[in-house]
Amino acid sequence: MKNRYAVRFYKDGNIRYISHLDLLRLFKRTFKRAGIRLQYSQGFNPHPKMSFAQPLSLGYSSSSEYLEFETQNTYSTDVIAEKLNSLMPEGLGILSCEELPDKEKSLAAMTEAADYEITIPVDDSLEIENTDLLREYISQDQIKVMKRQKKSGRKIEINIKPLIYSISVDRRGNCIMLEAKLAAGSVSNLSPELVLTTFCEFTDISYDRATVAIKRKEIYFIK
Prior knowledge:
Strand content: 35-45%
Shape: elongated
Distance between the termini: 22 Å
CATH architecture of the largest domain: 2-Layer Sandwich
Number of domains: 2
Number of helices: 5
CATH topology of the largest domain: Alpha-Beta Plaits
Radius of gyration: 20 Å
Order of helices and strands: EHEEHEHEHEEEEHE
Low-confidence stretches: none
Structural class: alpha+beta
């Protein structure tokens, strides 16, 4: 019987600029320091059985990320959470830990959607009507973008509207806040970057990408 677990954690502050692979290395070292013995794969180059439900893009923050892993020994979920949390660097924190069923699919395979919050700083003098902006944007028959295929490298035109499950917009001071539930996972996946660019192009809102903050708030799994 496998010892399968998942920890839910947040990622914020300057540590949001470390890469996906660096984050994996960080967790690997933290497990070792905590005395939690991970299960390793077999073969010429063994590696720990550990993976994220959905990789988080560089520069994004998150209030709800998931890491699943297997251990050689059985541990209390409270002990795992406590030991890891005591060793986490600033900007990372364990929110919870739970045991996963032995024969259940991986979290990556069960990921189907994710909530994002996109904060776009704008000029104070910009006059907008939130409900009109959103209604006009989402009422389009199609929202087309050019997307590069991973295998061929060619750019193809796709319609992202079916991948936007819900969306809302609000004006808070000198920022426009977009909150969207988007398709995520191995079957279909929509980057919030495409929502940001298509929304701002359609509504003629100018922005500096370096000042835009994107936060993943939750990941949803197939039940």
